[in-house]
Design brief:
Number of helices: 9
Number of strands: 8
Distance between the termini: 22 Å
Shape: elongated
Radius of gyration: 19 Å
Largest sheet: 4 strands, mixed
Strand content: 15-25%
Structural class: alpha/beta
Length: 162
């Protein structure tokens, strides 16, 4: 898998509850980053994560290689069962809403991979605020990022352990 260097920015809210948070100590002011934005991005892409403060917000910037390390251990566990109509039904433990059926196991795995891609796109675009703030869907976020980082549907299928 080719790593494309794209800066991922994650926003954290600093509420003063963690005295001396290392991220806060390492963070640059947004106004300073704005003045040397290209240098900031180059540092994140080629060297290390970066942190930015703006008022009470903290932003963390990671390149995709750093993000890949964070999501590396994540895999999907699928259950494939033969139903009474002699079709396979596939479910995914980590994302309970995904249920597909098909004539062959391979067809079911391909359908699961396609559903994971569609769910990741929906999660990261139109439904992000809703899903991320829903207790039952927040835990999907790292899995969604892992799916979004894959180049092909076959790469997504390789994440599925059945």
């Amino acid at each position: 898998m080719a790593i494309v260097h794209i800066v991922q920015i994650v926003q954290l809210r600093y509420d003063g509850g963690v005295e001396g948070m290392l991220m806060l100590q390492l963070a640059e002011k947004a106004s300073d980053v704005r003045q040397h934005f290209s240098e900031f991005v180059d540092t994140v892409v080629r060297d290390r994560p970066g942190f930015v403060t703006r008022n009470r917000d903290i932003l963390a910037a990671l390149n995709l290689e750093h993000l890949a390390v964070l999501v590396e251990p994540l895999v999907f566990h699928a259950k494939l069962e033969l139903d009474e109509n002699q079709e396979y039904v596939g479910t995914v433990d980590e994302i309970e809403d995904i249920v597909v059926s098909g004539v062959t196991k391979e067809e079911v795995l391909t359908s699961i991979a396609q559903m994971l891609l569609e769910y990741a796109e929906d999660y990261l675009t139109d439904s992000f605020r809703l899903y991320f703030n829903s207790p039952n869907r927040r835990k999907h976020f790292p899995y969604v990022l892992k799916v979004a980082m894959q180049d092909t549907i076959d790469d997504v299928k390789c994440l599925i352990h059945a």
